[in-house]
Every structure is written in C-alpha cells, then in structure tokens.
TrEMBL record:
GO biological process, one term: DNA replication
Residues that bind ATP: 76-80, 225, 237
Pfam families given in the database record: AAA_22 (PF13401), Cdc6_lid (PF22703), WHD_Cdc6 (PF09079)
Organism: Halogeometricum pallidum JCM 14848
Protein name as it appears in the record: ORC1-type DNA replication protein
Domain of life: Archaea
Summary of the function given for this chain in its UniProt record: Involved in regulation of DNA replication.
PANTHER family xref list: CELL DIVISION CONTROL PROTEIN 6-RELATED, ORC1-TYPE DNA REPLICATION PROTEIN
Record-stated family: Belongs to the CDC6/cdc18 family.
Amino acid sequence: MTRRNGSVENASALGDAFSARAGVFSDKALLDVGYVPGSERIVARNEEIRRLATALNPAVEGEAPSNAFLYGKTGTGKSLCARYATRRIVEASAETGVDVGRVVVDCSQDDTETRAVRATVRGLNDPAVTGIAVPETGLGRSRYYDLLWEVLDARFDVAFVVLDEVDCLDGTDFLMQLSRAAEAKKLDRCSVGVVGVSNKVRYRDRLEERVKSSLQEREIVFTPYDREALSEILRSRLAAFDDGALEADVVVECASLAAEEHGDARKAINLLRHSGELAASEGADRIAVDHVRRAKSVAERDRMRELIDGGTIQQKATLLAITSLALVEKTRTFKTSEVYAAYEDICAESGLETLSKRRVHDLLREWEFLDVLEITRTGGGRARGSYLQHHLLEDPSVIRSAFDGSERFAGVGFTAGSTTTTWSNI
Ligand SMILES: Nc1ncnc2c1ncn2[C@@H]1O[C@H](COP(=O)(O)OP(=O)(O)O)[C@@H](O)[C@H]1O
Ligand SMILES: [Mg+2]
C-alpha cells in the first residue's frame, strides 16, 4: 500500500471519530458526573427530600431553619438532594419575598477552616449589591469571618451553607462558628442553616458534644440504591443515547453490577457511559450487554492501576498481601495476623525490607481511605480479645490484573489458584 493511499484511507476511517454525533450518543452531557437532573429525574429519594424540606422550609417564611446532616456512602444521591432542596427553597422564597441565599462548599477542595470561610463568603457575596469586595488572597481567617457576617446581614434573611464532603474539613471550628453565629451576636438579621454532607457514616462520632448540640442537627441517612432504583436512575437518562442504541438488558446489567457493589448511582452512570464509549470505539452502533461487562473490567482495572501506581513499594506489598490471601482462601476477610504473615512472605519473596506490624497497619489504613478495603473491630468493642478484621472491597482478581506488568512483584504472591486474564484485546 502506498503512503498516499494509506493516508486517504485513514482520513476516511477517522471521519466519524470527529463528527459530533459519532457512535451511540446523542447528548452525552446527561451522563456527566456534575449534571444535576431536575426533580422529575430524581428517583427514589422522595422521603429523604421531604425530610430535608421539613428541616429547611421555615426559611421560606423568613424563619430560622434547622440544620441538617446527610450521611451515606458515595453515589447515594446526597450531594444531589442537598443541592436540589436548597435550590428549591431559594426559588420558593422568591414568591414570599424573603431573601434566601445558598452556597455549596466542596470541603474536599476547601479543606481548611480559612479556605472554607473564604469559599462561603465569596460564594454568597455579590459586590454589586453589598459593595463589599472579598479578595481571594491576603486576608486572615478572622477577617474573612467578619466579611462573612457582614455579607450575610447585607444580603439575606436566611442563608444555607451546604458543606459537601464535610468530613474532609480539618477540624469542626467552622461548623461551630456557623451554628453559634446568632447566639454569639455576630448576625443581626440573617439566620444560617447548615447542611452537612458526609460519605463517612461515622463522622458524627467525631463531632464534639457542644458542636452536636449547637447544630441540633436533623440526620438523614441515605441507604444504597437497589437494582430497581438504579435501573430507574439510568432509564431517566436514556436521552443521552440515540434511539435504539441500547440492546435490551443493558440498563439492567449496569444496574445489577452497580447494585452488587454498594448501590452507587455514580458507578452505574459511569458504567453506562463507558459501555457506550467502548461500543462507539469499536464502531458498533448498538451497546450490548457484553460491552457493559468488558467496560466494567476495564474501568475497575484502570482505577486499581491508578491507585497502585500512586502507592509506594511498601504500600503495594501490603495490598498484595491481602489480595493474595483472598485469591487463595474462600473469603475476603482476614485478621491482622493473617495479613501480616502474608505480607512477610511477600517481602521475603521480593527481597523487600519487612516493616513492623504498626507500620503495616498504617499502610493498610491508607488502602481503607481509598475504599479498597474496610477495617473493622470485632470481638466485643474495646474489651480485651477484640481484634481487627480487614475486608477487601475490591475483587481480588481485578487487583491482581492491575498488578500485571509490575516488575517488582512479577509472580509474587499469586502462587495458588490465580489465572491470568488477557486485556490486550479490550
Ligand atoms: N435518586 C437519583 N436520581 C437521579 N440521579 C441520581 C440519584 N441519585 C444520584 N444520582 C446521580 O448519581 C450521581 C451521584 O450522586 P451524588 O449526589 O453525587 O452522590 P453522593 O453525593 O451521595 O456521593 C450524580 O450524577 C447524581 O446526579
Ligand atoms: Mg457527594
């Protein structure tokens, strides 16, 4: 084949890839993580939204709302419902003539007290209305607080501060300041409603009594979605695809796979999108169940690979230890002593220095932080005889495949019962 012919052929083969509606998608934005569906597309959360509305509703009449705390695992619709409910109150208050404001602070980004106060005041301020300038840098924390109280009184009767991922915030001083603002006479006119959102169900235990009592919080726990709810969430976004682009059972397959994990709507939506991308990349004009299954393996392996690449060699060894146990045993749950023994074997096999139990425990905690495993104490609370259980959340064969190609650990830790999967054709 001549070079000229080759390039002509390439150009025509690539033609589709750059057209706006290549493949199976018609409006892909509906599958974006940040997309906020309207109420008609919020599925299976009526009870949670109703309870949230009860807490926040006094604002519509200009009265102080209750604070609310939303807990639950990732992808259970907490951020969505917090945004939706507060936005609805702001809209409803336009009709009653009450000035209600609202800001959403992502505490995983603004994770110190100063940053969080600054994000709050900047989000609520409108210099054209208040005449107050809030600089992005250069002020100390207490100055930002002063500006916050000023802005709140200048603009609003009631303001909602949604603290999303509030467990990422270092310390609880900001919560304290917000909840005590009225009592401490920082505010004359405005009342503040705090909506805390946390993926860590145990975050509440971290709050000191005085914070808890001053928040008078209403707790709303978001339970994982089941297969039916996930199917419905996906179905409400099918406008993302061309007509007839989905084979029967594709939605149910995505929903079932996500339900098997922890009922995470984000995972279900991403899986549907990745399946569509995989089908489109293969030139298919329909998504089949097989695309879904392969998309899931690829997504999981890629995520694991990223996590593993980000770890130190010792961190990798600890993960390999529990993974190799899970591949050999019939369970995914192990005691500290079992994980440590497997870790020692791996160090011996790969010529790695063996760290102390304490250090290995710290490294395992980091995997827990990344949701790769879960560590719980069993055997009678803090009483003598209690011990730690390490439960691997990820599929060990996926972790194992993510270790493929890792020179340091080639062949280490997977001596029994492991199979190698080939991914090159995906
Ligand atoms: N009940 C629901 N109806 C429709 N979409 C939902 C629902 N719950 C979650 N989603 C979607 O799933 C994704 C994750 O939800 P999110 O609110 O961010 O979860 P969380 O904050 O609990 O981690 C978002 O794209 C969101 O729009
Ligand atoms: Mg969230």
